[in-house]
Amino acid sequence: MKILIATEKPFAKKALDGIKEILAAADYEVALLEKYTEKEELIAAVRDVDGMIVRSDKVTAEVIEAAEQLKIVVRAGAGFDNVDLKAASARGIVVMNTPGQNSNAVAELAVAMMIYMSRNRFTPGTGFELQGKTVGIHAYGNVGRLVGRKAKALGMNVIAYDPFVTDSALFENDGVEQVGSVEELYAASDFLSLHIPATEQTRKSIGYKLMMSMPKGATLVNTARKEVIDEVGLEAAMTERTDLKYVTDIAPDDVATMTAMFGNRFFATPKKMGAETAEANINAGLAAARQVVGYLRDGITKFQVNK
Ligand code: NAD
């Protein structure tokens, strides 16, 4: 069996060493494609591989078509919108993610972003404190739950909305109030921490109306995906309401305009960095390698996302 590790943004060395060790122990051949810039390089590299480990790399229908022997793709990370699930399923290829492995890194960044924005992006002037403010958690999954717990420790009031979490004990155990609608969540949140996946349902779902409903001085914190934002609507709301702020780990398409328009009320990390910690790299990378072996050797499909 041959496994390709394809990472346009490479794993940290320790993570890569660990991945190679797990694959070698299973007697698999390992191919490495790092820091590639052209999709043709990826297409050439997948031709004879049985499995692939990727990060945010785009596994398109074209890539899948070229990978004639491919049986499994594992996305080392949570979001799997970079993999064409339809094309994979049509070929019977299993796609997995590694849920939860980088959640703490992302949650810490979300909290850091709240502090950064409440202190005027560390520029002179009077800021405000997080303690006593309300943070709304939009989607109570792996990252959202951790943000909720960390926010509680900072003395914040935490509310959350997730229509797919049916066990209310999850909220209760964290001392988090579950609200009944997206509208209710945004209207009550001084900070809104976004943790929804990018799906057909969520694409461009956060825009003018929800932003305009937020309390005075509110901040939208996005460590999820840029695709869930309606940029035109967001810009309109921030133009009309000069008290609103937006901080994101996924730069909007219109980043230059937004930087020029909104000054200290807007910040985007230069490159997505939520999961960029040594710990998250190692956790997600090793989990991906174990899942590749688990599937190819033992048929384990626990984290399959295209069932
Ligand atoms: P998760 O799968 O654990 O949780 C997602 C939650 O979203 C689930 O609880 C689900 O019920 C909920 N959900 C789905 N559709 C919804 C909808 N329409 N409305 C409300 N809730 C909905 O995922 P996670 O690990 O918590 O990741 C959350 C987000 O963070 C994803 O978008 C992921 O891509 C992103 N992420 C970003 C980085 C980064 O580097 N910035 C790293 C990891 C994850």
The CATH architecture of the largest domain would be 3-Layer(aba) Sandwich
Sheet/helix structural class: alpha/beta
User: What is the C-level CATH assignment of the largest domain?
Assistant: Alpha Beta
DSSP helix fraction: 25-40%
Which residues sit in consecutive blocks of at least 5 with pLDDT less than 50?
none
Q: What best-fitting shape do the alpha-carbon axes yield?
A: elongated
Please provide the count of β strands: 12
- Strands of the widest sheet, in order across it, are 8-7-6-9-10-11-12
What is the CA-based Rg, rounded? 20 Å
Give the structure's gist in a few sentences.
The protein is an alpha/beta fold. The chain is 38% helix and 17% strand. The chain is elongated, with a radius of gyration of 20 Å.
What does this structure look like?
The chain has helices spanning 13-25, 39-45, 61-66, 85-90, 103-118, 142-153, 169-173, 182-188, 208-212, 231-240, 255-262, 278-298; strands at residues 2-7, 29-34, 51-54, 72-75, 94-97, 134-138, 157-161, 177-178, 191-194, 219-222, 245-248, 266-268. It has two domains: 2-101 and 277-298, NAD(P)-binding Rossmann-like Domain (Rossmann fold, 3-Layer(aba) Sandwich); 103-268, 3-Layer(aba) Sandwich (Rossmann fold), CATH 3.40.50.720. It is built from twelve helices and twelve strands. By secondary structure, the chain is an alpha/beta fold. Strand 4 (72-75), helix 4 and strand 5 (94-97) form a beta-alpha-beta unit. It has a seven-stranded parallel beta sheet, with helices on both faces. A five-stranded parallel beta sheet has the order 2-1-3-4-5, sandwiched between helices. The structure holds nicotinamide-adenine-dinucleotide. Residues 77-79, 99, 102-103, 106, 139-144, 162-165, 195-197, 201-202, 223-225, 249, 272, 274-275 line the site of nicotinamide-adenine-dinucleotide (NAD).
